[in-house]
Write a structure and sequence with these properties.
By secondary structure, the chain is mainly α. The chain has 8 helices and no strands.
């Protein structure tokens, strides 16, 4: 994984997103990032017995929780990317490549790895999700503006749509 590019993306530097546009390994790195986020969530919930994490119920078997959350998160990531593609194509009437959206939304999962740490430190999870969600949205906005030539307003709308779809699909009880 390109940790340098991940660090640049977290800092909202345009170079990371330009790299994503021209490098095929960005999709694989995005898959690793998404998987790592959900693995850390389950690790904290099961091993460290952290309660209050969103989308995880305490008392479930750690393996089944990981599989359930990983599938729901991966599904929500791809469907959220599809929502961005649909909005860009049908509402904004722009020509975009779905393959350019997927790594941007995958890399935007990276700040969410901090949610269990916030829970462990007994900070309010809701406030953490809002702050980290804004950071994720800012990452998507930067990527959409860099790689998809979206205006700021359209990039913000697309990022919020992707996040809404993610919350809706990952938060479905029993998915």
């Amino acid at each position: 994984m390109e940790t340098q590019r991940l660090w640049q993306a977290l800092q909202l530097k345009r170079d990371a997103y330009v790299w994503m546009q021209f490098n095929q390994s960005a999709n694989g790195d995005a898959v690793l990032i998404v998987g790592l986020v959900y693995a850390v969530w389950v690790l904290f919930a099961s091993v460290l017995n952290t309660s209050g994490l969103p989308f995880l119920d305490t008392g479930f078997d750690a393996v089944s929780q990981f599989i359930q959350l990983f599938i729901a998160g991966g599904f929500a990531w791809i469907i959220g990317s599809g929502a961005v593609y649909a909005i860009s194509t049908f509402i904004f009437e722009s020509r975009v490549n779905f393959g350019a959206i997927v790594p941007i939304t995958g890399y935007a999962h990276a700040p969410l790895v901090l949610v269990p740490l916030v829970a462990r430190l007994s900070f309010p999870i809701g406030a953490a999700l809002i702050f980290l969600g804004i950071w994720s949205a800012a990452m998507m906005v930067t990527g959409f503006q860099s790689n998809l030539d979206m205006t700021q307003e359209r990039a913000i709308g697309s990022a919020l749509t992707a996040m809404f779809v993610w919350v809706l699909l990952v938060g479905i009880p029993g998915f």
